[in-house]
Structure formats: C-alpha cells, structure tokens
Amino acid sequence: MTYDLINRIVQWNGQKWRILHMMKERSALYSINAKDGALAITVADGDEFRRAVNEGTIVSLEDEFEHLRGLSPEDSGNSSSKKAQKLYDLIKPLVDDTRILYEPEYRRQQINALAAEQTSLTGGKTASIRKQIVRTLCTWWKKGQTPGALMPEYGSPGRHNCTKTPGRKPSDSVKKTAGTIPVNDRVRAIFHRYCERYILKEDGVSIDDAYSRLVAAWEKEYTPPVKDAEGNILKPTPAQFKYYYRSEFSSYERTRRKNKSQIWKKDLRPLTGNVYDITGTIGRIYEIDSTVADINLVSDEDPTCIIGRPTLYMVRDVFSGMIAGFHVSFNPACAVSAADALYCSIVPKTEFCAKFGVKLNEDDWPVHGIPRAVAADNGELCGSALDPFRYAFHVDLINTAPYRGDMKGSVEELFQRLQSIVNMGIPGQVDNKKLKKEGHKDTRAEARMTLREYIRRLINAIMIENSGFRTNGRPDGLPSNIACTRKEIWNWAGSTGRSSLRNAGKLMNVRRTLLPHVEASVSEDGLTWKKITWTCSDAAKQGWFNRGGTATHPKKAMLVYDPAVIDSCWLVENADTAHPVYHECMLAPCSRYLSGKSLSQAQKFIEACTETQKEAYRHYCEQKGVLLNETDKNAKEITSRAPAADGSNKKAAVAAMAQNRITERNRMEQENPRVQNEHSANGSISTGAAAANGSNSSGTAAVKGTTTTDYSFPENPDDIPD
Question: Which end of the chain has fewer CB within 10 Å, C or N?
Fold first, then answer.
C-alpha cells in the first residue's frame, strides 16, 4: 500500500481529494472543492483504491496549501497565532480519533457531545458552537491537517475592501456627499474597464485624464442613469474612482503594467538574490562590456592633435568583483577590441602595465588565468569571431537578453565610478546636456590629456576599485577576520580552492585564438585577403603554389592575422577542431611594400595606390587617344600616296633593295643622336655637314682642318679588328 500518499492532494475520477487516512480495507478522502462547512468525507474501498493507484488513474497534484505546513501557532504570540491555537484546542479531541473519518454516525455523536461540553463551559449557544466545530474540522482536513492550517490567511488573493450589504447603515464617521452615485457592482465594473483601458498599460494616461474620459461618457456607460431629487444625473466623484483604482490594483501590479517589460525587469522589479546565488568561485563567470569615455584626448606625438573620445572595455569577475582586464582603443565596439580586453584579463599584469610606465607587483593585481565563462550583452560575442578561443579552452560564451543590462550589472555599474576617478580635474570632459540652450558646451578643443596618460590614470583607478569594499554582502565561508574587500575575497578564494581559473599555458596560443580568423583565397601567388598576399613555406612544400596548372590546393584557407602588424600571419589547419595546427606565413614579394604597417594603414595605402592608378590610367587613356588619332591621320596620308614601284619597275626595285638598305643605314648612322656634334658650338663643321661633303671608304669624314672619328659599323664584317 502506498502510504506516502497520506495527506496529499490527488485527482481521481475528475475530482480533487485530500487523502486523510489509509488502511488496508478502506481509505478516507476529503473533497477539496466542497463548500465551506460541508463534511464532504468519502470512504473508498481499499482494493479499488489500490487498483487505481497501480493503474495510474490517481494523479498526485501540487498542494496549494503547502505554505501552511511550516506555520505553528505556538511559535508566535500574536493575535492570529492565539486564534489558531484556540481553534486547534477546540477540535483536538476529534482529530486524534480516526473513527470519525469512517463512521458518519459516530462522527455526529462526537461533534454533538463536544458542542454540549463547550456550551456548558462558555455558556454559548449549542448550535453556534456546533457550527464552529464543523467549520474548523473542514478547514483542518482541507488545508493539510496541520496546526498551521487554522492560521488566518489575511494575505489571500481577492478584493479586501468591504462592500455594503442591503439594509446596512453606514457608520457616523462616513461623510455623505450630495450628488454622488453609490458604488455598486455595475459601477465597479465600469471603473475596472476604464482602469484597464486607459491607465494600466505602457502608454497609459494619468488617473485624472482617465476620470475625465469616464465622466464624459458616463451617460452612455451607465444606463438608465441614476438621478437625484432635482433630476440631475448622478456621477462618480474623483475620490471614488481613485479609491477603487488604488484599492483594487496593488502597487506591484500598477508599476508592472504601466512600464515596459524591459524597464520593469531591469530597473523596477524586486531583487530576490545576489551574485553569490549565481556563482560560488572566482573565475566562474567574467562579465565584459564597453562604453565611450566621457573625455576627449590628444595625440601622444602631437599634443595639438585632438583625437576625441576613446572606447573603454572592462572585464570583471562576478564573484569577487575584481577587475580582471581592460582595453582602450579608438575603434568602435567590436569583437577585436573585446578579444584584446579578454587577453588582458588572462595574462599577468606586471609586464602588461609596465608597457604604459606603471610598475606593479604581482600581488597588486593578482588576476590572471582563463575563466570558465564570459558574459556579454547582445553584441560583440554574438558572432563566431571568438569560437576558436571557446573551442580551444572550453570557455562558455553567454549573451544576455537585449535591453537587460541588469543581467551583467557587476560590470555595468563600474564605468561611472572609474571615469569619475580618471577624469577628476582634467579639462575636456563631456557633459550630459545635449542642447546648447540647456548649457551644453563643446569641450573638444579643451582636450589636454594624452592617451598614454589616460591609460596610466585608468590603471590607478582600477587599483583603487580592486581594493574597495564589496557591497553585495559577504560570501559564504568568509572568515570574520578577513575584510570584505574585492582583493581580500579574491586572495581568500584562491587560497581555499574556490577558483575556477585555469592556467593559460603559452600566451602565444591564447593570443592566436583571440585574433581575427578570416578565409583567404589560395592561388599561385599565395594566400590573399583584402588585396594582401602572404606565402607559407609549409604550404609551398605541399604544392599549393606550383605554377603551370600543377598546383594542388583548396580554394579557401583559414588565416589568423594581427591587425596591429601584417608582416606575418598564421595558416590554420584543422580550424574546426579543438586542436588546430598553425603554420607561420610571411608577406609575399608582391605585398612587401606593405611591410611594417598595420591592417588599417595597409588598407588606406592600398586605397591611395588604387586611386593613383586610376588617375594615371585616365591620363594614359587620354594621351593614348591623342596619339592614336594622330596615327590614324598619318595612316590615311600614307595610304593616299602612290606605291614605291608598279608595273615593270617592280622587279628592278626589289633587286635594288639591298643597296638601298645600305645607303639608308649609313644615313641613319650619321644622323644617330649618340654621335656628338663637338664642333657645332665653335663654328666648325658638324658630322652631318662632313657627311654631306663626302667620306672615304672607311667611313672617316675628311674635312679641311678637322679630323672626325666615325663610330659607324664597317660594311664588311672582315674589317672588324681582332
């Protein structure tokens, strides 16, 4: 027999029952849906009941009175507890007797005897006392047969304001207002409808506006109208409408329904826990978020060059509240900047901060290691940019719901405090005013702080924040002799094994997984992405870059590059697995002109080169067109001439071609621009003039008083000296 069902609520034959008592031969059940004061006890046959349990036709239900089990009238001395204890003492002789559950006649006799006994003790009426005993017994059986079942439930749902009954006279303290309509069920229904229609919604109006609409349409809403002795239509007063609104709808319901769901959940709903309910170890969850800084900066190289407001990324541990890492850049919020902030949270901070001129000991900022999970808003981590990091180190990436900054409130509240420390006393701060007439002032021209100075001040602010007190209470197990500061909680959790951080190993492996992964096209020239080409010696050995159609390579390959410098990158093999293989790549010869540049610099340089090439090509086409037009004009002129020979002269002209060729070659050699006209400047005869006066057989010009060397080739190859 399943005796564990005793005092449980079950469903059987379409009705809800509470099992009061069970025996082998029979069981006593009480109907939950019975009217108050009705002794609705049913005795079920033992065999039938066991068969129903085995067949599954009896289904256990949730006990709606479960909250009364923990209440005890003896634990408190208030009026409610005293009343419950008095009722329990009244029926105690009956509840200890199980025969009254199975024998109706015996139950009637015992109730009458108890009522008579109480009548003799209190002097009351027997009928009233009997009714009280029956009503108390029904409550006892219905609500779970515990002393707490008799406690008055003043917080039960439903309308709590009393309504007038017919013939009831109001007390003398109630002031009567002439010309007002009595509030009955019809009036309440109209009030409820107008509250729902105009007030209890996101863009709802005020109570006064809703009341104005109500009285304007009262004659249509309440028909036939109620009139006073003078024939005036009675209408509800503002006080009646406001009283109904505030008494019918609780403050919780009014606030929830009048605000957007995101605003209610983020800013207004009651909080039922803290961060220690989410995580119990350091490194279990890191939260990351970004914001635009509230100050304008200038360049480190040129203080007169304004560079504007940087983007600030922060990474924070949820359990301890320690700031794990940060990143400052002038890029908009993106996965690359988020990856840089995560890298800062993983590496030791001593060498990292030394790059900015800040000397720290390892104990000053002891946060390093790979966390178990990283939570961010619905932005940078939504894509697949950090999938290699997630797969390689088994890190969970959590994206919160849109417009729910409270889901990562640990890092959201951080920015204002940090910036108040960093920007303290520095010109160039941005105010919260948007309009000039509100007092907005453009402070960009007042910027004086450089980026490097901003980062140093930010590190000092982080040290102050990490040493501050935790405001979310003390974690479980923290000894009383340890202060509840962020750094102390971190050190205590790390020393007691309350840490989910893992060793990062080689930082180069972490760096590569956090860098951008892109697909590059593969050709004989190398691996090309965004007009930048790299070559890989390992891929070349596999025949990827062979020429002549003999190359064997995939169409696409995965590359990992560093946006800060593009001189090298990595070819990723088995990128979709947890153990990828990286092969180093270098810039191909066709892209070495981009050496030493970052990705943004290289892209701008390529764009500038492309624009230059376009402009040069345009000029080239213009000049080419002019020359082609001149060439076409000359071709027409040439084709209009008579041929060199025709008719019978063709054979002789062809036969004389060899001698003509020699003569023309001699003339061209004498007119060659490389021949120096040494005597043209002092009045002597030039080489061309000597040629006109004649030359000897060796090609040397004979001019009176002048000897000119002829550099022309001899006619006979045998004349060439050894």
Answer: C
User: pLDDT tens for residues 97-115?
Assistant: 888 888 889 888 888 888 8
CATH topology of domain 282-432+441-495: Nucleotidyltransferase; domain 5 (3.30.420)
The dihedrals phi and psi of 118, each to the nearest 5 degrees, come to -70, -30
- Does residue 1 contact residue 138 with C-beta atoms inside 8 Å? no
Residues near 179 by beta carbon (within 8 Å), at least 6 away in sequence: 228, 232, 234, 235
Q: Work out whether strand 59-60 and strand 9-12 pair parallel, antiparallel, or are unpaired.
A: antiparallel
The b-or-e profile of 163-186 (16+ CB within 10 A means b, else e) is eeeeeeeeeeeeeeeeeebebeee
Region 611-631: mean pLDDT is: 94
Beta strands in 390-455 (DSSP E): 396-399
Sheet strands side by side (includes 41-45): 41-45, 26-31, 15-22, 9-12, 59-60
Dump the DSSP string for 663-709.
HHHHHHHHT-TTS--TTTTTT---HHHHHHH-B-TTS-EEETTEEE-
List all residues 6 or more positions away from 568 whose beta carbon is below 8 Å from its beta carbon. 534, 562, 584, 585, 586, 587
CB 184 within 8 A of CB 164: no
Residue 441: partners with Cβ closer than 8 Å, 6 or more residues away: 431
Backbone angles phi, psi at 28, to 5 degrees: -105, 130
pLDDT greater than 60 at residue 681: no
* Nearest-angstrom CA–CA distance, 70 and 455: 57
Strands of the sheet containing 311-317, edge to edge, are 323-329, 311-317, 286-292, 373-376, 396-399
Reply yes or no on whether the pLDDT at 443 is more than 50.
yes
How many angstroms separate the CA atoms of 546 and 481, rounded? 71
Structural element, H or E, at residue 94: helix 79-95
pLDDT in tens, 7-66: 888 888 878 888 888 888 888 888 888 877 778 888 888 888 888 888 878 888 888 887
- What whole-number distance in Å separates Cα of residue 416 and Cα of residue 402? 21
Q: How far apart are CA 17 and CA 122, in angstroms?
A: 35
